[in-house]
Amino acid sequence: RYACTVGRQMLRRDGEQKGQRIVRYVSNEYVRGGEHDGQLLENVSPVLYAKVGCEYSKTTNLAPREFVSFVGARMVIPQNSTDEVFKLNGWVNGCEGEVDDIVLDPREPADTKDDKGKFVGVYRELVYPPVYVVFKPFQHVPVPEIVDPKDATTKVAAGTFILVPKTFDFEVKVGMTKG
After folding, report:
1. What is the pLDDT of residues 53-74, one digit of tens each?
2. From the CB of residue 124, how many other CB atoms can be counted at a distance below 10 Å?
3. Cα-trace Rg, the chain
4. Which of 100, 105, 115, 170 could cross-link to 134 by cystine, CB 3.0-4.6 Å?
């Protein structure tokens, strides 16, 4: 936990030094099925919520609950991909680079500013997870520019690639007690 706190503080400092607005999204886990269907897991079982995921863990393969970043932030790919293109180009666990763009969900409300035009709060708190993050490795990447065939104004620059948020479902079985 200490390392993550220090990491957030450094990210915040770097964002402020680079004049970039930091975005933050904290995921919500919902219960599906049963008597608590649609309710927040945190409200149904705080103990299980604490075990589901808080910080990234390679040993338990949990996704982080919180996404904090900004355009220009340095980052490292934390997990290997099974895609051969990634492996051949050395885009594996430990590949360093920076965030080239963060594409927000179109439903995301506008960022809030005070009456002097300054952003409110340390972070831009997102309601929806980012659609994707454009990552630019520090090593040369032989990837051409990508243009959306439905909208030519939507482009991903040459030498970058897209990282999408990780989502997953899991099933929890609760044991029956003898009564």
Report:
1. 554 444 544 445 677 889 999 8
2. 20
3. 19
4. 100
Look up the pTM and report it: 0.68
Strand partners, 98: 74, 136
User: Is 69 within 8 Å of 102 (Cβ atoms)?
Assistant: yes
Tell me, what's the pLDDT at 177? 55
Distance from C-alpha of 134 to C-alpha of 127, rounded to nearest angstrom: 20
Q: CA-to-CA distance for 58 and 92, rounded, in angstroms?
A: 14
User: What secondary structure, in 3-state letters, does the chain show?
Assistant: CHHHHHHHHHHHHHHHHCCCCCEEEECCCECCCCCCCCCEHHHHCHHHHHHHCCCCECCCCECCCEEEECCCCEEECCCCCCCHHHHHCCCCCCCEEEEEEEECCCCCCCCCECCCCCECCCCEECCCCCCEEEEEECCCCCCCCEEECCEEEEEECCCCEEECCCCCCCCCCCCCCCC
For 54-57, which contacts have Cβ atoms below 8 Å and span 24 or more sequence positions? 55/1, 55/4
Pairing of strands 23-26, 124-125: parallel
pLDDT tens, 10-36?
A: 888 888 888 888 888 877 777 777 787
